[in-house]
Structure formats: structure tokens, C-alpha cells
Design goal:
Layout: H1 11-22, H2 30-34, H3 41-65, H4 73-81, H5 83-112, H6 118-121, H7 123-141, H8 145-169, H9 189-200, H10 220-249, H11 252-255, H12 261-270, H13 274-306, H14 324-340, H15 346-379, H16 387-407, H17 410-421, H18 423-438
Helix pairs in contact: 1-8, 1-10, 1-13, 3-9, 3-10, 3-15, 3-16, 4-5, 4-15, 5-7, 5-13, 5-14, 5-15, 5-17, 7-13, 7-14, 8-10, 8-13, 10-12, 12-13, 13-14, 15-16, 15-17
Length: about 450
């Protein structure tokens, strides 16, 4: 391997970044949340995975059109729609990362409570455990992108083991009677599928992660598209098979009240001891997702700062080539956010943080679809083959993103809009400073 590629991510580490950031501890709880819909929610998974495929294809194609740009959704939007729109996308995405990391840390603490019950009994113990995990991974990620990539690959493999065992092994324990009734919502079939698909779509957030550190990826024009599509394939199979197995093993009236559905299914399959290794898988899943998003939280402000739309200090790198300032500042913000809400219970705190991040990540997806068609017009001749499929992909991915935004609900849209608007004064100050420096 050439010296210039030794400090870059390859196919497997890039794929683990996609898989690891999508699969957090929350996936272990999803079957219980879907039980109130009935087995019709499995069709919701299919519908949301189609939407995720459309967006993954958009990001894969964008990485071929602009292979060396760092920043993912921000970089594509900035290139095609200019400074202001690019900044708002980056601002919203950055908010999503901060809130997302905090919510993942809460999930990590919750998973550890199986082994250390004192964590859920003491707010101080909970917040201390979360802060230790956050700052340990902050240190790991300042050691270099290859180091954090190795941690990501290892934790991704470890988290997949219990998921695959339950998802595949559970197929032999399924009772068809547990899939009835098919629709528990009381709504129409289409309405139930739409509701469950809207919920399950958030399990696919992270499909864009391979595009964000593009400047640190080997052969990005080939590696990123492959990692994105491969990562989506792996997670989709695990999500659908896992939900089908758990729903087929545990009756819906019991599953609705389960706080550890994968662990409960594993106990039925292999006995009481199985609960502990599934809980360990949950903890590793959260830890791995925390590591992956910590890597991303340095790359996004770095990309914005390079374009002079964020303070220049965020563009600084350490000896290992890591944009460490963004990682450190982001970890401070995550720590403050968690500390401000430590009085809330773990569940309430998780819901609060999730609400803050919902719309913030969907707006970048929407604008990335727009950026795709604009950049393709710029880079590829209108006479070239493939234009019909490109237009269809744009229309479908844009429409799906709009539908997902509408599905977040009034409160999420309102709060997300306020958070985005809060970035406008910051943008104005940065532009004023840039003009002043040019004088």
C-alpha cells in the first residue's frame, strides 16, 4: 500500500462506518415498539428500506461525481446550491450529530444497566458512565482515523454476532400464530404501513456516513459507493430478519411490553444466560455507534471551516491528520447537553434528544437529492446515457424525503425549524467577518 494510503479508510472500515452508525442500541428495542402495529410492520420495514435504498443510491452516485470532497451532504449542497444553503444543511446536520451522540450515550448507559443496576438508580452514576465513554472515544478518535476505523470495524463485527444469531437462529423458533392479528392499529392497511415505515426509517440514518470523510478514504470514487450499498444491504437484512424472528417467537401482547425484546427472544431460544450476551451486544452496538459518530463530528465542522463558513480553528489538524478541534468542541457540547438533562430519566432523556435530531438529519437528505440532479447536469452531458434513471432517482428520493419530514410530526418540524433558524445569525456573523478580513 502506498504511504499516502496508510492513513486512509478502506472498503471494510468504510462499510463498518455505515453499518456501525446505523445499527446502534436502539435496534434492539425496535421489535417491541413495532409490536403495537402488528406484523404489518414488517411491510413497513420493506417500505422504509426502499426509501433508504433510494437515498443510498443518491449518495453513492454523488460520491462518484465528486469523489474527493469531505463533508458528505454539506459538501454536495454547498457545491450545488451555494454558501447559505450549504451552511444551513451543515448546521442542521451538526445539531443532529450532537444530539445523536448524546442519545447514543444514553442507550449505552441503559445497556450496561443489565450488569450494573446502580446506573439506572443514580443520575450521577449514569451521567458519569456516559461522560467516561464519550471522552474515551474522543481520545481514540484524536489518535488518527485509522485507529478509530479499527475500533469501528471491531465493534461492528461484535455487535452483529448477537443480532445475526437471533435473526437467523430465531427463524427455527417462529410460531406463525404469533403473526396474528396482522394489523393492530385500527387504521387501513396503507395507513398502518405508512405509520410503521415512518418509524422504521430512522433506523437507516447514517447511510451517508461513508461520504463524509471522503478525503480520508482510499479510491473514494469506488470505495464509497460500494461501502454505502453494502452497508445498507447488511443492515436491511438484519433489521427485517431480526424483527420477523422476534415477532414470531414472542406473542404481540407480550412483545409490546418488553423492554429487551431481543434478549427475551434469546432466553426462549437458549435459556436465561442468553440475556447477558444480548445485553452485551447492545452495549457494544451503542459503543460502536458512539465511536463512528464521534469520528463524523470532527469531519463536518472541518469541511465547513475549509470553506470559510465556520471559524478557521476547526480546520486545524493534529500530527495524525485529525481535525481535533471539532471533535473536542463537539464532545464538550455533548457533555453539556447531557449534564443539563441529567435529572430526566433515561427514557425521557432519550426521547428528548431524539426529538431534537429528527428533522435536522432529514433536511440534509432532501437537499442532497436536489444537489444530485444539479451536479449531474454540471458533470454529465445531457446526451449521455442514464439520464432517465437519474431523473427518476431524483424525483423518488426527493419525494420520499418530503414524506419522511411530514411523518416526523408537528412538534419535531416546529422544533427543527427553530433550530435551523438559529443558525442564520451565526452565518451572518461569519460572512460579516469574512468581508471585514478581506478589506
Amino acid at each position: 500500500m502506498p504511504p499516502s494510503e496508510k492513513n486512509k479508510l478502506g472498503l471494510w472500515t468504510s462499510t463498518s462506518l455505515v453499518v456501525g452508525n446505523m445499527i446502534g442500541a436502539g435496534v434492539f428495542l425496535i421489535p417491541a415498539a413495532l409490536a403495537s402495529y402488528g406484523s404489518i410492520s414488517l411491510l413497513g420495514w420493506v417500505f422504509s428500506s426502499v426509501g433508504a435504498f433510494l437515498l443510498a443510491k443518491v449518495f453513492a452516485n454523488l460520491s462518484k461525481l465528486l469523489p474527493d470532497v469531505t463533508g458528505g451532504p454539506y459538501a454536495y449542497t454547498h457545491h450545488s446550491l451555494g454558501n447559505f444553503t450549504g451552511f444551513l444543511v451543515a448546521w442542521g446536520y451538526y445539531i443532529c450529530i450532537i444530539c445523536g451522540i448524546a442519545s447514543i450515550a444514553v442507550s449505552f448507559v441503559s445497556a450496561l444497566s443489565t450488569f450494573f443496576p446502580v446506573i439506572v438508580q443514580s443520575s450521577l452514576a449514569a451521567i458519569s458512565t456516559a461522560l467516561i465513554a464519550i471522552w474515551f472515544l474522543t481520545w481514540i478518535n484524536t489518535r488518527g482515523i485509522v485507529t478509530s476505523g479499527k475500533v469501528q470495524l471491531l465493534t461492528t463485527i461484535l455487535k452483529l454476532v448477537p443480532l445475526i444469531l437471533v435473526a437467523v437462529g430465531g427463524l427455527f423458533f417462529i410460531r406463525l400464530a404469533n403473526f396474528h392479528p396482522f394489523n393492530l392499529t385500527g387504521n387501513s392497511t396503507f395507513g398502518a404501513i405508512t405509520a410503521s415505515a415512518s418509524f422504521t426509517f430512522y433506523a437507516f440514518v447514517g447511510i451517508e456516513c461513508a461520504t463524509i470523510p471522503a478525503g480520508s478514504v482510499i479510491n473514494p470514487e469506488k470505495t464509497i459507493p460500494r461501502a454505502t450499498m453494502l452497508g445498507l444491504l447488511v443492515t436491511t437484512v438484519i433489521y427485517i430478519l431480526g424483527s420477523a424472528s422476534v415477532m414470531g417467537i414472542i406473542p404481540s401482547h407480550q412483545l409490546q411490553h418488553s423492554v429487551t425484546p431481543y434478549a427475551d427472544a434469546a432466553v426462549i431460544m437458549w435459556g436465561p444466560a442468553a440475556r447477558y450476551w444480548v445485553s452485551a451486544g447492545m452495549a457494544i452496538a451503542a459503543f460502536g455507534a458512539l465511536n463512528g459518530w464521534t469520528l463524523i463530528q470532527g469531519q463536518v465542522p472541518y469541511a465547513i471551516a475549509k470553506d470559510k463558513l465556520f471559524p478557521a480553528v476547526f480546520a486545524k489538524k493534529n500530527k495524525q491528520g485529525v481535525p481535533y478541534v471539532g471533535i473536542l468542541v463537539s464532545s464538550v457540547l455533548v457533555s453539556v447537553l447531557m449534564s443539563m438533562n441529567y435529572a430526566k430519566g433515561l427514557v425521557e432523556q432519550f426521547k428528548f434528544l431524539l426529538l431534537l435530531s429528527l428533522l435536522s438529519v432529514l433536511i440534509p437528505y432532501l437537499f442532497s437529492a436536489v444537489a444530485y440532479i444539479i451536479i449531474r447536469i454540471e458533470k454529465v452531458s445531457l446526451k449521455a446515457a442514464g439520464w432517465l434513471s437519474a431523473i427518476v432517482l431524483f424525483i423518488l428520493s426527493f419525494s420520499y424525503s418530503l414524506w419522511a419530514i411530514a411523518g416526523t410530526g408537528r412538534e419535531a418540524v416546529y422544533l427543527g425549524f427553530l433550530l435551523l433558524m438559529a443558525g442564520i445569525p451565526i452565518y451572518a456573523l461569519i460572512i460579516y467577518k469574512n468581508k471585514k478580513d478581506q478589506v
